Amino acid sequence: MNENRINPLLAESPLPFGAPVFDRIEENDYLPAFHEAIECARRDIQAIVDNPEAPGFSNTIEALEAAGRDLDRISGIFFNLTEACTDDHLDKIAEEVSPLLTQHNMSILLNEPLFARVKAVWEQRAALHLDTEADKLLEETWKSFARHGANLPPAQKERFAKISEELSLATLKFGQNVLAATNAYILHLTDEADLAGLPDYVREMAASEAKGRELQGWVFTLNLPSYGPFLKFSDRRDLREQMWRAYNAKCVGGANDNTALIRKIVTLRAEKAQLLGHPTYADYALEERMAKKPQTVQQFLDRLMEPSLPAAQREVAEIEAYAQAHGFEGRLMPWDFSYWSEKYRKERYDLDDSLLKPYFQLEAVQNAVFDLAGRLYGLRFEARTDIPVYHPDVRVFKVTDETGRMMSLLYLDYFPRESKRGGAWMTSFRELGNFQGKEERPQVSVVTNFTKPTGTTPSLLTFSEVTTLLHEFGHALHGMLAEGRYKSLTGTNVVRDFVELPSQLMENWAYEPDFLKTFARHWQSGEVIPQEYIDRIVAARNFLAGYGQVRQLQFGIIDMAWHNRAEAPAGDVVAFEQEMLRPTAVLPQIEGIAISPAFNHIFSGGYAAGYYSYKWAEVLEADAFAWFKEKGIFSREAAEHFRKTLLSRGGSVDADILYRYFRGRDPEPDALLVKLGLR
Questions:
Q1: Is 472 designated active site?
Q2: Which of 50, 114, 229, 677 is least enclosed by beta carbons within 10 angstroms?
Q3: CATH architecture type of domain 8-109+111-147
């Protein structure tokens, strides 16, 4: 090893726009870099504490905002890789680093001399006459200390810090178990007869997966591009059941069991909240969200469930009757529903993925999304092959506005692999910030698990994947168009039940004929998607709307059931979840099956006591898109108004106020039900 080698994580990037030097970073660089960056951050904090000048906004609040820049940068790189391109070594580093970071963060938030300075500035707030953004930073800084135990007596402070450390490890382990359980299962088929009902594209994908594993035949995994089509198309009911059980029992027992971790996480979160005077973790978490109280969330879920549950029951009965009319015997089970509903949908709307996928080549969809961002916001996207990436699948684009101003780097990572967790997400390697008076623009990443190209076919997206790309790109726009002086208040740094508004809003364009016609061409013939196909897409938009709504509301119910309580429930995790869902179950509940043990969003991600926010944001976006429809879906003037009043403002203003800036009023609560045809 070269002893004179400089750790690239501890040096300023020499690359254009300060891009991460992925071609130079070695896994053994991370641990020493974290140790050095933590020490540097401690010096930054100590300099604030030791400042002989009286506490002021600049020397305390702004200085604190700027502290730990290297640590933020290293964390942004490392933890994004543990989600998108990890291995056992990185996972072990994460297990070592996570408690160190928690200890460091708590050492700041429980630093009494530092808090005394923050408190001194807070108490002179009215006399400072700060502008809106600075005043918001002061408020959020004060609350961050108060909500992390700064006002607690010493013994309780120590316990709070210990809880935070234990939670960081438990939530990290939860996510690692989900990924391991997902990768641990494959369905390996060698008899072509077992592929009955599967379209060619699904067979090709499975053959490619088998080849990559040096196996004969076909391999299906629990990654959604493989699992979803198998459940939807396979004629083999026994194999559908096997796949469904494997997917829905992830982390229930076995080597990757998460049930004990759930009880630990729930218990620690409840204790954390109670130390701060809140009866439940939900009370603690919701204090900082638009909903404010658990009662508001429960009323919201109930209000949506009331018309949705009868609709879902009618839909399931309709699918079951259709299945029985076509030879199915017995009761429709969960592993039957996707299969028969797809057949019914195809017959009713003459529409299926096999029909549409040839018109949605990934490259064309991507370029159409870029073009839409250009029409709405004046953005331009330039592919950059001179910027290194962390995996060969990743592509990088420089994003500028119409004046040529640098807005962001955009990393796109589309395809599944064992080193990547399932699902789709937007994140950032670096958020908007300022360093020594110079603006540092964001480095945004969109990560998905789309169908990979095969030897004979490019990556062709399902319509659902088209909407997924638009969704995550909406998050990306929120990050790329960020404006402001303070990183913690820019981009997607907003309350949880507001953050999904820009992403869910973007999905609406997928159903607009004028947008679809700009890019949806058959990848072989070049034929523009027929108008009749578009008509069917629009007509089928609300197919199973009640069922889909109930499913999402159930996720919110599970989340609140775990977090809106003073202590973890007694008894079995699976039994508890099934009891909570029984009143809204529209398909038979299966013994030993539970969502919670693999529910990354609430036990490993940031959605604890916040999963309802997807539906909350859907209400906002339904109301917001109605406004876009009035003004014109390609209206530059409308988009600029949305950008200036809401999209670029981040968390610099309270979310409900931002929405009123944009819309001129509060959202109409029934907008979503009307959109879904449920009212």
A1: yes
A2: 50
A3: Up-down Bundle (1.20)
